[in-house]
């Protein structure tokens, strides 16, 4: 494809929709066209590109190697188009476009988080903005910001990646928990005895927090490793493992008696959450407006004030 035309952009959007929905049939409702039309459009795009993008048939829908690479490039292209629309909308004194926001999982129950109040304030202003939210691990979110698939992400990032800007937003409190049926669920609260039992228990750890979890628990190896908070909670609720969870997330199970919080020494911590953006990116109006909304929401919460990240014009 030597030059990009309007029809090509439309075909790229069709391709992205097909991939996101997992096939031609599933994409019909989102695109509001028939499966045969989608098939024709995909064939046209493959002809324009000179690449085989996917396999479709009795075996189901599957991207080829070229299809995977094209999908990544297509997401970057469409985000660049949205950024162009955002920038030009400023000339008309309105904020419009698409905001690509990334979050780590299971933050919605945290009353200390300014994310929901910021979204409410932002949307109440009547901006003509489509908001897409991607939930992923810290490493996934950082990768998506670096390659342009996300405008910003909010979460706990144990390591800082070159090329990204990290700005402190708020802290999340966590503690150590066991499930009903675990020997520690009915153990006495004696500190030294409890720590001894903890050190011999099977531990489940989130991969991106594993090093600090094992250090706090004075053990060398996790019996299980997970990628997200929900998987961590499932294994703790099984009664076979102990592990750390955000206090706000675990509270429902503590209240119902299905979990116990283990209050041994040095096992209660607050972990910083940051707003992450690409260091070199010019900040479009919609992104700046949302970050301003985060700052305003943060000022109404009871802990330290949020300082917005520096703005980069080139």
Could you explain the architecture of this structure?
There is one protein chain. The chain has 314 residues and is α/β, with parallel strands linked by helices. It has 3 domains: 6-72, Arc Repressor Mutant, subunit A (Orthogonal Bundle); 93-171 and 272-299, D-Maltodextrin-Binding Protein, domain 2, CATH 3.40.190; 173-270, 3-Layer(aba) Sandwich (D-Maltodextrin-Binding Protein, domain 2), CATH 3.40.190.290. It has helices spanning 6-21, 24-31, 35-49, 65-89, 115-124, 138-146, 191-199, 210-216, 229-237, 247-256, 285-299, and strands spanning 54-55, 62-63, 96-103, 128-135, 152-155, 164-179, 204-206, 224-226, 242-246, 259-262, 269-278. Strands 3, 4, 5, 6, 9, 10 and 11 form a 7-stranded mixed β-sheet that branches. The longest helix has 25 residues, at 65-89.
Per-chain topology:
Blueprint: H1 6-21, H2 24-31, H3 35-49, E1 54-55, E2 62-63, H4 65-89, E3 96-103, H5 115-124, E4 128-135, H6 138-146, E5 152-155, E6 164-179, H7 191-199, E7 204-206, H8 210-216, E8 224-226, H9 229-237, E9 242-246, H10 247-256, E10 259-262, E11 269-278, H11 285-299
Parallel strand pairs: 3-4, 3-5, 7-8
Antiparallel strand pairs: 1-2, 5-11, 6-9, 6-10, 6-11
Domain HTH lysR-type: 7-64
Pfam families: HTH_1, LysR_substrate
Keywords: DNA-binding, Transcription, Transcription regulation
């Amino acid at each position: 494809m030597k030059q990009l035309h309007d029809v090509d952009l439309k075909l790229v959007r069709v391709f992205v929709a097909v991939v996101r929905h997992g096939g031609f049939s599933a994409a019909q409702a989102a695109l509001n066209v028939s499966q045969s039309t989608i098939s024709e459009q995909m064939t046209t795009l493959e002809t324009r590109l000179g690449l085989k993008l996917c396999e479709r048939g009795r075996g189901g829908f599957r991207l080829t190697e070229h299809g995977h690479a094209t999908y990544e490039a297509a997401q970057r292209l469409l985000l660049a188009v949205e950024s162009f629309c955002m920038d030009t909308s400023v000339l008309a004194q309105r904020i419009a476009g698409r905001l690509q926001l990334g979050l780590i999982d299971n933050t919605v129950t945290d009353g200390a988080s300014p994310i929901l109040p910021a979204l409410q304030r932002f949307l109440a202003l009547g901006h003509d903005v489509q908001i897409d939210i991607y939930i992923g691990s810290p490493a996934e979110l950082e990768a998506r910001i670096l390659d342009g698939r996300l405008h910003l992400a909010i979460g706990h990032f144990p390591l800082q990646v070159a090329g990204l800007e990290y700005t402190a937003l708020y802290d999340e409190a966590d503690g150590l928990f066991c499930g009903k049926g675990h020997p520690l669920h009915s153990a006495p609260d004696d500190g030294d005895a409890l720590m001894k039992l903890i050190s011999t228990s099977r531990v489940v750890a989130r991969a991106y927090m594993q090093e600090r979890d094992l250090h706090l628990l004075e053990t060398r190896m996790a019996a299980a490793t997970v990628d997200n908070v929900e998987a961590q909670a499932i294994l703790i609720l099984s009664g076979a493992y102990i592990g750390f969870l955000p206090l706000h997330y675990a509270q429902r199970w503590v209240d119902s008696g299905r979990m116990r919080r283990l209050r041994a020494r040095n096992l209660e911590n607050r972990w910083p959450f940051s707003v992450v953006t690409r260091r070199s990116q010019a900040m479009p109006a919609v992104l700046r407006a949302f970050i301003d909304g985060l700052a305003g929401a943060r000022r109404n919460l009871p802990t330290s004030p949020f300082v917005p990240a520096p703005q980069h014009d080139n």
